[in-house]
User: Fold these one by one.
Assistant:
Number 1:
Amino acid sequence: MLTTPSKRALPQTVDARKLTGQGVHLTGVFTGEQLPRLAAAVLNIDEPVDVELSFNMDEQGTRTVVGTVSAKVAVTCQRCMEGMPLELSSDVALGLVWDEDGAKHLSSELEPWIVADESAQLSRLVEDELLLALPFVNYHDEGDCQGVSHFSTGEVEESSEPNPFQVLEQLKRKD
């Protein structure tokens, strides 16, 4: 029987400047405990968060971080208020800069990642990307949602009771 090797845990902080200079490719995972803001925004983080990032320097000398982050989480359906699974995924395309002024000089394809010190919070970067990928409102598909069964989409029944304004309508016609 074949087993897949477990992915290695990534460090929470890295020297991003050094990694971009060396052209390092990181593949690994973060646990839900390492991403407290994401854990607070969802019901549950079902599996370790997958991270694949390449740290490089392009031909213009811009330090870049490109890759993907993905997670399987559980969120609340806003229709039935029950939990539902959701797959989050975000493509990362960042330009590593030292300050706000450096961010102004990045190409439009890159978002700035401001790293003022030698150490950069890789876990915060991953968490930020997943929080931005999280939908504002979550719903089950209509066939899967228990909240939809409480609502009727049928025709409105006509009342057989006499309309109290019918007399006024008749008076209006006489004029």
Number 2:
Amino acid sequence: EGIIIFMVAPTYEESEPELDSEHLLSSSSPEPESRDQQDNFPVSESQRKTDTSKKFVKCEICGKTFEYRSKLTRHMRVHTGEKPHSCKSTQVKSFIQRIQLQRHMRIHTKNQHVDSGSTRNAELKKRRRHKNRTDKSRSETDTSKKSVSCDTCGKTFQCKSNLTRHMRVHTSEKPHSCSTCGKRFIWKSGLETHVRIHTGEKPYFCITCGKRFNKKSGFESHVRIHTGEKPYFCSTCGKRFGKKSGLETHLRIHTGEKAYSCNVCRKEFRDLSTMKSHRRIHTGEKPYICSSCGERFSWKSGLNFHLRIHLSEKPHSCSTCGKRFSLMINLKTHMRIHTGEKLHSEDTVTKTHEDSH
């Protein structure tokens, strides 16, 4: 029995899956991860019947069952995010299973000369078997044995099935639908992730703070809060980010790109949150509510200013006489008393109720 590699597919609402040679090689006949695994081959049917003490072990998080506790232990890494096998060359890359590390190490060793004849022969045999499999796959899916390309964007694929799936990006075809709410998805993996909203399933949990997640991407992003890891960096100014979306938004500062526009007035914005905030001008939406008096505000900053009336907070003080104000604009107006600057009609501001007392 080979190793069962648990891989959680990303949400393909944003990006589509692509098959590569490394994936094809790793998906068949994986090598045993350790000596313990080699000893874990299942017993015969007759032995199973006589061995009444053998019981299946179950994952308490997702309910998946395993014949051996060692496999349950490895499976738990999917939920905890533990990656005990690290690359000694980079000191950064880590993997859940040893075989994943072994495949990764080929990146470092593929250009190095291998002295051992037996190791070299074994590697050649693996490559030959892989070539035969890929050649057979190509002959079945593409009689011309040539890569196929998308007529819309020019992206190339090794087989027509991958091109067919890719075309959904351009056609907006969404063949997978949720039986609960009817929402449709381009990829099956996207549907599987969405269903967790209805079931409440959150298979990923942070071992540091206990917070749970229904998406692997959300879990991995959260873990970086504790580790301080910022794998995404700007090649222009060097600023680093914990989330890819943060980097993408930042890059627009350098490129000047404004990817989001208001559908009412067509004003453009660099990030989605600013655009949504702007739209409240048109919709009149006021999502921020004062818990003391019930007054509503379109923006959080407006609510924060308002709360100072109830809290009697006056953070801005005059450096000359010490008088305090809740708003900076009122302090600036007051300072003219000391500077002798004349107050112009257009500069006149209405003082707040608290500042008039």
